[in-house]
Automatic annotation (TrEMBL):
Protein name (database record): L,D-transpeptidase family protein
Keywords: Signal
Segment forming the signal sequence: 1-24
């Protein structure tokens, strides 16, 4: 069957209507675009480290996503994971460097997709430095796990390896003051953040630590 020329022209215009012009670049939506396309209101998140003085390796890390709309704040999502902070079971002195758990207070977190440090690698959240109650400065604080480059687990070898999660054979919830979680928890926390917010610093995300 042959169509009249004006019908062929209409079909071609319809087909080409959604095609970008030659040389045009289509970028994936940013986190801000994903947020604005969702329900009305402003999203924000709080990552809370809730300390357990009875057992520092059985504390909790809690993700809470909030939406504020027309002056009303409502909880959208909540997730939590086991977390540890401190080097021994009784490391509850936040002013003791390389031993005590994280000092209380608020932190401005920075999300990394593949942090490359001497000990910390892969997905991680940098918290910065924090002075405890007596003024002692705790430095290079993170939320992290034990893994290698690109969040991969290295081969199992004798002894404690910083590139491999070995709990319960080795207590990998132990830290020098950072917050430690399992690789699965770190992955889930990373995904929860990235579902709504950008990598790096995002003023809509806070970390709060409380005893």
């Amino acid at each position: 069957m042959r169509f009249p020329s004006y019908v062929v022209a209409a079909i071609l215009l319809t087909a080409l209507a959604g095609v970008p012009a030659a040389g045009a670049v289509t970028a994936p939506p940013t986190a801000a675009a994903r947020t604005s396309s969702a329900a009305p209101g402003r999203l924000s998140a709080v990552i809370a480290f809730e300390k357990n003085p009875a057992h520092v390796f059985r504390s909790r890390l809690v993700w809470r996503l909030w939406r504020t709309h027309d002056g009303t704040r409502s909880l959208v999502e909540q997730r939590s994971w086991r977390a540890g902070s401190g080097f021994t079971r009784d490391s509850t002195d936040p002013c003791r460097r390389n031993d005590g758990w994280l000092p209380d207070g608020r932190y401005r977190p920075r999300l990394h997709a593949n942090y490359w440090g001497s000990l910390i690698k892969g997905r991680a959240i940098y918290l910065g430095n924090k002075a405890c109650a007596d003024g002692t400065l705790r430095t290079d604080l993170f939320i992290h796990t034990e893994q290698g480059d690109r969040s991969r687990q290295c081969a199992d070898r004798p002894g404690d390896q910083v590139c491999r999660w070995e709990y319960p054979k080795i207590n990998d919830y132990r830290s020098y003051g950072c917050v430690k979680v399992s690789p699965r928890a770190m992955h889930e926390l990373f995904d929860a953040w990235r579902a709504h917010f950008d990598l790096g610093y995002d003023d809509r995300v806070q970390v709060r630590v409380r005893g």
